[in-house]
Design goal:
Layout: H1 26-41, E1 46-48, E2 58-61, E3 73-91, E4 101-114, E5 120-126, H2 127-140, H3 151-170
Antiparallel strand pairs: 1-2, 2-3, 3-4, 4-5
Bound molecules: ligand K1U and zinc ion.
Ligand K1U binds near residues 44, 45, 91, 95 and 136.
Length: about 170
């Protein structure tokens, strides 16, 4: 297993639609394991393959951040096949450093995907787990949580990120 670099907003892979996983082969299993290590090291509660610069439809989610192995979800080709209600909640993103904001998401979702054995699995989730699953599926479609904010907020965030990038370059 190896930790991979997490790419940051502005990188073209984050804005592209990821390709479906065709076979759960050794390469996908290794990518999934690397993503879990990267997620726990970050630390974070969700990660999508485009965030490690791989344009494949693979996500990992772990609300326990490695504390409870039963909480780990690895899904290839996840699809949201049911959604109910709406909730406003705070989000962050490992690819959008130091920015958090409130986003409206379904309160409840049903997600279908493949596990690492190739079995079809359905997950029903609510609240934070539903939110993180939606956030990660958005990554596979080239959508960042900041894209779901108002144009005004998005403009302010882009300005802040440009300033941080300039400050980092000068330091
Ligand atoms: O996809 C990502 O960029 C990861 C992101 C997932 C997410 C968090 C909150 C709401 C929606 C989606 C993160 O994990 S940001 C870091 C974070 O929230 C966290 C980190 C350590 C412990 C607990 C939470
Ligand atoms: Zn994210």
């Amino acid at each position: 297993m190896a930790s991979r670099e997490i790419i940051i907003i502005g990188h073209p892979t984050l804005a592209a639609k990821a390709e479906p996983v065709k076979d759960i082969d050794g390469e996908i299993v290794r990518l999934a394991k690397d993503m879990v290590e990267t997620l726990h090291g970050a630390p974070g509660i969700g990660l999508a393959a485009p965030q490690v610069d791989v344009g494949k439809r693979l996500i990992v989610v772990d609300l326990s951040v490695g504390k409870n192995k039963d909480d780990l979800i690895v899904l290839a080709n996840p699809e949201i096949i049911g959604r109910e209600s709406k909730a406003l909640g705070e989000e962050g993103c490992l690819s959008v450093p130091d920015i958090r904001d409130k986003v409206s998401r379904p309160y409840w979702v049903k997600v279908r995907g493949l596990d690492l054995e190739g079995n079809v699995i359905d997950i029903e989730a609510e609240d934070l787990l539903a939110r993180v699953l939606c956030h990660e599926v958005d990554h596979l479609d080239g959508i960042l949580f900041v894209d779901r904010l108002s144009p005004l907020k998005r403009g302010l965030i882009k300005k802040k990120l440009r300033k941080s990038a300039g400050d980092a370059k000068r330091a």
